[in-house]
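Good day; I would like, with your permission, to put a structural problem before you. What I wish to show you is a protein chain and, alongside it, a tokenised description of its three-dimensional fold. Here, with my thanks, is the record as I have it:
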Amino acid sequence: MSRAHFLLTAAASLTVSACAAGPAPDIATPLPVLPQSFALSVTTSEAASVAALLPASDPAFTALSRIALQSGPSVLEAAARVDSARARAFAAGANRMPSIGGSVSATGTRTNPAQFGGNLPGGFAIDSEQLSYGGNLSAVWDPDLFGRLRAQERSALSLAEAAGADAAAVRISILAEIAGAVIDWRTLSARENALGEDLVAAESLVALADIRERAGIAPGFDRVRAETAAEQSRSRISALDSERAQIIGRLAALTAQSGQKVRDTLGRSASAMPAPVAPASAPSRLLTSRPDVQAAAARLAASDADLYAAAANRFPQLTLSAALGLLAFDTSRLFDDDAITGSAGGSLLAPLLDFGRIQAQIDRAAADKQAAFQAYRGAVFAALGEAETGYGLVAAADRELQAALREQASAARAAELADVRFRAGLANFLTVLDARRVADSSGERAAAARGRAERARVLLWQALGGNEGRNGSENHAITRSINQ
């Protein structure tokens, strides 16, 4: 085919394809409008940081977090998914480069001269055994004139970014889970201490009722009621073991450690710290600090690239190829000029009549982009709702804790006065038991309320994106403290 004929054919193909080709459909993806501030946040003038919401000073949290981030199954699985996504992105980028290959061969053939008949010209002989030696170097390249391969690479890179954000979300979730478990463990210890004090007080009432019964100045019913109160405290202390077992099981799954090692780590003592102030934050920061929002945004970008790649299928695809080789029937002549073979060519593939197949791919990619955009919007408003919930829980838990502490102090004072009045003969034993029962339950409620206040701060930390930005200075600080 002459050069002019080839150019004429290529131009005709481009003209026909251009009639059906066009830009990708425009799918509007406006940035979600967020409020200027959180409705449930408490305005404070105190300096506060997101990282301070975690119990980073607790040695059990530090040790268990380090183990989980280094060898936890969920973290390692997320890291493997990131490696897989990066490999796919590298492969997509490599598709834009030429593909070069080489081969060497040695072929032996044996033919039967009789298959050519017996009437061969004189002096003509058939070599029935023949050896050939060859080597080839070939190259194929798609210049990607209309950006289809570039769009596929952008999609793969965006998905790799989404995988990285997913891995960050997994780490944040694990840290929050471990923090909550450690807080629950400390809360159980505080509840047990409160119940232990209640048991001591109840046993002293049993001893007093027994003395009065032996002296004949009180009925045996008083002693029975005092023993019942003591048994209630013992029963509530025993029930705490089931909650401890659940905590150990959760942490064993997160850290891939034995239950005994988890128990030993939780046994490390920790000093009580005041609950940190909830930090101020803006809803717009959720777009940059929440890994799940970042992952949704990356997937939206990938869907946009996929839509562009689908639309690029309307245009022709040019493929260039070349081959250079050697072919000889004797190794001594393998590098002679006559042994050199080669070829070069190009092909142009253009869609002419596909009965709507490409349009269906474009429509599907457009629908996928719509779904990705709605998933992004859902992630944004889910983050907003969780942050509002976190702020509201912190404020409510703090109020509950303050009320519980006041109740505990008042109930303890009432129990003390009832005991004094009883010993002075100004109150009966039933009054003492009622006051003691209220004081006993108030101590445990105060310990549980303190645990809920600390738990609420962990939920707020997670809702705000686990520090101020995935790459922020606070994030590096807490990671260093965990890994040291």
